[in-house]
Structures are given as C-alpha cells and as structure tokens.
Amino acid sequence: MGRNIWVDHESVAATARTHPGVWKLVAVYPSAEGGKSAARRISRAQRMSAYEPPAAFEAYCAPHENGGTSVWARYVAGLTAVPPRPSTMTYRVIDRGPGREYRGLRIVTVVIAAECRMCGGPRGQAEPHRFCEDGEWYSCDRWTNACGHLDTYDSVLAEHRKRVVKTEGTGRKAAAEAWPVDAGEYTDAVAILKAESDNWPGLRARQAAQILALSGHPEAARRIQEEIEKRTARMGAKQAALFLAKLAAARAACTRCEDGRIRYQARDGEFASRRCLKCRRDTDRDA
Ligand SMILES: [Zn+2]
Ligand SMILES: [Zn+2]
After folding, report:
1. Which of 78, 161, 224, 272 is least surrounded by CB atoms within 10 angstroms?
2. What's the gap in Å between 225 CA and the centre of ligand 2?
3. Contacts of residue 72, Cβ cutoff 8 Å, sequence gap at least 6
4. In angstroms, what is the span from residue 251 Cα to ligand 2's centroid?
5. What pLDDT does residue 4 have?
6. Ligand 1 centroid – CA 145 distance (Å)
7. DSSP assignments along 21-80, one per residue
8. pLDDT digit string (tens) for 124-142?
C-alpha cells in the first residue's frame, strides 16, 4: 500500500470544527484514487472517526499542481444555510491582448474551475470593480482566494480558452459519432434515448436521464446524472448514450472487481471492500 500517506485527521477535523463552513486542506494525496476515496470517507465518517457523525463534514478533491490530489473538507453540522460548492466560477476579467504593446483592453467573461489551479482550494467570490481608462468606464471582477494563491487575469484567460477549445472539441466529436447500436447491458436504455431524440432533436442529457428514470432505467439515469456533474461541457442525449455504451463495455471488461466491489485488506488487517470506480455500479454496502 505504498500509495497511502499518513494524515493527522484528528487535528485537521478539530481545526475545521472551530471554523464551521470554512474549507480546510486535509492533505495532498499522491494518487487521484486515494484522494477521491478519502473525500468520500470523510463525508461519510467511514473508518475516519475524527469526522463523526456521518455528514458532519463535506469534502471534495481537486488536482494539485504537484500532480497529486488535494482533499479539502469543511465542517457543516448544525449550519442551516451552507451555500453549495460551485462547479465553476464566472469572472469578468481584463484582456489586454497577446502582444506587448498597448492597444487598449476589453472585458471578457470567463468560466473556469471553482478551485485554485495550484492547491485545489476554493476560488474567491467575484467582487465587482469599476475603473476608468482612457476616459472610458469599465466593470470587471476581482477576487481573493482564501488559500493565498493569486490568479492573474492572463492565467485565467488562458484557462478559460483551454476549456472553450475542449468543449468545442467534444461537441464536434459527438456530432460526428454515430449512435451506439450495441450498448451491452444498456442497449434498451440507449434505444429509448435514440427514439426520444429522433422525435426531439436537441434533447439534453439531463432530460434523457429523466426519461430513463421514468421508463424503468433508474440506474442508467443515475450514471448519466453523475456524468453530467463531472463534465464541464454541455452534454446531449447522444453523448449520454455513448457514455452508457462505454460504461457497459468497461464493466464487461473489468477484472478488478466482483459485481462492482473491489475487496482488499485494510491496514488494520480486516478485509473490506470498496466500490469499483471503473464500473460505477450501485452497490448496497460501502465498507
Ligand atoms: Zn491555492
Ligand atoms: Zn469493476
């Protein structure tokens, strides 16, 4: 188990409890899987007694600039109105163009990750700022990241452009791809989506999930819903169908798990099992 790291969860949890609602860095895990697993177990207080009772803490993970995965947690027990963690941040920023010479400016609205690119901490709230340049008035946003890392306008513009290119790329790819015919265990669900989509071009993945939930495919609907939340790009019904076909194929090929659960020996010597993230099956136990 060389991918494990030692983390003083007692002291992280104690600090977080004294600052309810404030995200605290738990640790940077070397592997994405380790980070994800820790985040999940923190919010469930699963083999993590420091975070008891279950749901007293929220946790998430995000990429760290060193290649690892940061896990952040906040204490939410007893808080009535905790704003949910945003999936993206929208800021108005100043774009002065690529060259060195001065050629004025324009304001660009960027949609970027909700987390700091360096440490994975939450990015700050936009604060509107008015300023005057060359006799013109402009409005942009400023923000301060609680982690202390500074986002420059140039770096967030670059991040935004990368996202746009990626989104357009996936959109074009999906348009060129055909509907899957054989989607393994999801073949029926995919056939429903194809029929609905023929009647209703432009059907979104979210609506596709609702249709499947109502037509006897609640598990497929849940997987699509999860995928929508994971992706940054907009997702259509055909992309949802392609996703289901890929998932079915991955499950059929998976040799790591038994019915969606991977058994392993925990550090205390006891046997435990965790959900196979490749197969993403609904499993009854999460031990
Ligand atoms: Zn940071
Ligand atoms: Zn599996």
Report:
1. 78
2. 19
3. 23, 24, 25, 26, 59, 60, 61, 62, 120, 121, 122
4. 6
5. 64
6. 7
7. T--EEEEEESSHHHHHHHHHHHHHTSS-GGGPSTTSEEEEEEE-TTSSEEEEEEE-TT-S
8. 999 999 999 989 999 999 9
Q: Return the ligand number nearest the Cα of 280.
A: 2
The label of the residue with tokens 């709230």 reads 125
Q: Which of 194, 187, 173 is nearest to 237 (CA)?
A: 194
Are 153 and 163 in contact, with CB atoms under 8 Å apart? Answer: no
Give the ligand whose atoms come closest to the C-alpha of residue 118: 1
Residue 261: nearest ligand to its CA?
2
Q: 284 CA to middle of ligand 2, Å?
A: 15
Paired tokens of 140: 């942009």
**How much is the pLDDT for 3?**
56
C-beta of residue 285 within 8 angstroms of C-beta of residue 273: yes
Q: Are 190 and 244 in contact (CB under 8 A)?
A: yes
For residue 110, the CA-to-ligand 2 centroid distance in Å is: 37
Longest dimension (CA), the chain: 71
